[in-house]
Amino acid sequence: MKTSGALLAIAASAAALPGSHKPKPQPDADGKFTLTAPGIRAQFIPYAATLTNLFVKDKNGVETDIVLGYDNTSYYPVDPGHPVYNAIPGRYVNRIGNGTYTLDGVTYHTEKNDGPNTLHSGTNNWSYRVWNVTNVTNSSITFSIHDPSNSSLGMMGDVDASVTYSVSKNKWSIVMDAISPQQRTPVMLTQHTYFQLDAFKNPTNRTVWNHTLYAPTAKRALVADQNALPTGEIANITKNSIDDFWSAPHQLGFASGEVGFENHCGSGCHGYNGALAFNNKRNKKDVALTLSSAFSGIKAELTTDQDAVVLYTCNWNDGKSEFKSTQGVAGQDKFIPRDGCIAIEAQDYVDGINQ
Ligand SMILES: *[C@@H]1O[C@H](CO)[C@@H](O)[C@H](O)[C@H]1NC(C)=O
Ligand SMILES: *[C@@H]1O[C@H](CO)[C@@H](O)[C@H](O)[C@H]1NC(C)=O
Ligand SMILES: *[C@@H]1O[C@H](CO)[C@@H](O)[C@H](O)[C@H]1NC(C)=O
Ligand SMILES: *[C@@H]1O[C@H](CO)[C@@H](O)[C@H](O)[C@H]1NC(C)=O
Ligand SMILES: *[C@@H]1O[C@H](CO)[C@@H](O)[C@H](O)[C@H]1NC(C)=O
Ligand SMILES: *[C@@H]1O[C@H](CO)[C@@H](O)[C@H](O)[C@H]1NC(C)=O
Ligand SMILES: *[C@@H]1O[C@H](CO)[C@@H](O)[C@H](O)[C@H]1NC(C)=O
Ligand SMILES: *[C@@H]1O[C@H](CO)[C@@H](O)[C@H](O)[C@H]1NC(C)=O
Ligand SMILES: *[C@@H]1O[C@H](CO)[C@@H](O)[C@H](O)[C@H]1NC(C)=O
Ligand SMILES: *[C@@H]1O[C@H](CO)[C@@H](O)[C@H](O)[C@H]1NC(C)=O
Hints:
This protein is an all-beta fold. It contains no helices and 23 strands.
């Protein structure tokens, strides 16, 4: 079963690389595997099947690292904040309401690790495991995971899953497969990358509020409670209301002056941490969502077979974490401000297992 697929095409100029036939690619001294294709260079580590760096060219042809992360690859597993940086959470991403679901007449209880709910399957989630590298070339890598039954509390039956990342001219593609050979079990996956299309190089503003988002078929949103748990209601998005990225391309901060923006993603959280539903009759080969920045001139186009997307505008950034040495401007400090990034997570409907 193909559970999730996404293709991110990033506009950039590029020159062809010479081809060659040499030994199997090895990780560098930091443990990173590097994939290259014209206009794009992506680096990955087996911890959580994580993307550490994604380099594309900006409007001036300068290579730009447009995702968050750490220089120090040893820090990903020990970071107490652990924002699921560019990783694959699983086996059931996002929230399970009240840590409870019923499948085939049996009610299961999962770990309540996010207030009254389960988040990313609890404290033995896939984004904290070192995945196996089962195939690697200079333009693709496959990470695999064997997830034993009940290793995340209340999720029964083994699951074997893999993610294959590959690059081709200006494109990063993501294909996830998962099988549950023993019994039916909840499986929902996503790729959880945080983007900053200016790579913190805008000398006057490091937030994403001036990035522009457009998702022309995302005319509905999953209504959520103060714990960011969907209530089951899927509401139409009114033109020019806070979630409106369908009627026209809007800057992410376009609604920041509106009443409701302040707690829009749960109590104390401003901006976005919710799910938009695409028109499920759309052509899935069409671009579903575009994120762009006039400052860098970089535009990312998302194509996905999934029916929804979670947008998370990084309310949690506390101004104390540094961005990478590949980012920013020489001579300035390196701190990521609140609202300094946006996670774009193509996935199925959050807590769909209960709705
Ligand atoms: C992969 O890339 C490395 C580094 O550029 C090169 O040495 C090697 O020959 C390439 N291998 C293949 C199969 O193209
Ligand atoms: C990288 O992170 C690890 C784990 O926190 C730490 O032990 C190590 O000192 C760090 N290395 C550098 C160069 O900061
Ligand atoms: C919430 O889960 C608990 C068990 O963790 C269960 O006893 C309770 O009935 C559930 N409440 C609802 C509203 O489903
Ligand atoms: C995922 O698992 C780790 C390791 O057990 C845990 O520290 C973390 O809190 C879990 N993530 C979430 C979102 O609960
Ligand atoms: C490894 O990946 C390459 C490139 O995607 C593919 O052609 C090949 O079939 C894969 N090999 C295996 C064993 O999956
Ligand atoms: C990696 O492969 C080994 C050998 O097959 C297996 O024991 C281990 O569980 C795998 N690791 C993960 C994270 O699935
Ligand atoms: C699942 O694991 C928990 C401990 O994490 C245990 O209490 C429970 O009995 C296990 N369930 C089954 C069906 O094995
Ligand atoms: C960045 O731009 C946003 C949107 O205009 C604004 O709200 C914020 O105050 C700016 N931040 C800085 C540091 O100028
Ligand atoms: C939502 O919009 C659709 C299509 O425009 C319409 O058919 C439906 O009645 C609307 N639903 C609500 C609750 O307004
Ligand atoms: C940045 O966004 C703010 C609203 O958040 C808007 O007022 C301002 O004009 C935008 N700046 C640019 C350069 O687009």
